[in-house]
Design a protein that fits this description.
This protein has helices spanning 2-13, 19-36, 42-46. It is mostly helical and 49 residues long.
C-alpha cells in the first residue's frame, strides 16, 4: 500500500492527475485479459471485444 500512497502523492505534486484514468483503464484491460485465459469466463470476455 505504500506504493499506492507514494504514487498518489506524486500525481498530486506534479499535477498529473490526468494519468489516473489511463492507468486504471490499462489495469482493467489487463484484468480482462487474465480472465480471458480462464475457460469458464472466456466466452463472456470475448463478446466485449
Amino acid at each position: 500500500m505504500d506504493f499506492l500512497k507514494e504514487y498518489w502523492q506524486f500525481l498530486q505534486q506534479r499535477k498529473k492527475l490526468w494519468m489516473l484514468p489511463v492507468i486504471l483503464l490499462l489495469l482493467l484491460a489487463s484484468a480482462l485479459l487474465l480472465l480471458a485465459k480462464s475457460a469458464a469466463v472466456s466466452p463472456f470476455v470475448y463478446t466485449l471485444f
